Amino acid sequence: MDMEIFQKMEARELRKYIEFLLWHYRVIDAFWFINVAERFDQPIAERINEKVWGRVAGIAAKDLISRFDIKEKGLKGFIKALRFFPWCILVGYHIQEMKNEVTISVPSCPTQEARLRRGLDEFVCKEMHRGEFTSFAQAVDNRIRVECLFAPPDPHPRDLFCKWRFFLEKDGNDEINQ
Predict the structure, then answer these.
(1) What is the distance of C-alpha 159 from the center of its chain?
(2) Nearest CA to 82 among 95, 69, 71?
């Protein structure tokens, strides 16, 4: 990788470039999905998406843990790593940390909102996100469990697309977030 261009960039330019990369990360994902759905069909695109994100999220978590020297396990380590995950930044997950669980809510989903603006139905993303979140969480700590409270195709409030709960499988320890 040739990183020379970044050596002379000021912080403002680096932030602009990060915004560019995140935007294109999302655009590439969107066009990939749209083209697979057009070439095959929506359910096939959704199943492939499930496999892809079920795999790459765990890879991303391991890389983030290494690059940012994340030592924490449990829900604290999960949240620390997740805050670096591009989709967390792009979507702006609402993360609520409680003593023995974490919930993630998505009041504004750019992907679903773009589909709705174009007159399309919401795509079925529940199993894709279940695989993505499970893969990511278990790369941090294999005791973390994921529960979907609701996500498309489930009915949901107009102001909330999905909501997820994360908790540790009890293993006899008193301190659940260690």
Answers:
(1) 19
(2) 95
CA distance 10 to 38: 42
> Is the distance from CB of 124 to CB of 46 less than 8 angstroms?
yes
On the CB side of 162, how many CA atoms lie within 13 Å of its CA?
27
Q: Is residue 156 within 8 Å of 174, Cβ to Cβ? A: no
Q: What is the pTM of this model?
A: 0.91
26 Cβ neighbours under 8 A, 6+ residues apart: 90, 110
> Token pair 């941090």 is at which residue?
140
Dihedral angle sign, alpha carbons of residues 43, 47, 49, 50: positive
Over its length of 178 residues, how does the chain's per-residue pLDDT go in tens digits? Answer: 999 999 999 999 999 999 999 999 999 999 999 999 999 999 999 999 999 999 999 999 999 999 999 999 999 999 999 999 999 999 999 999 998 999 999 999 999 999 999 999 999 999 999 999 999 999 999 999 999 999 999 999 999 999 999 999 886 554 444 4
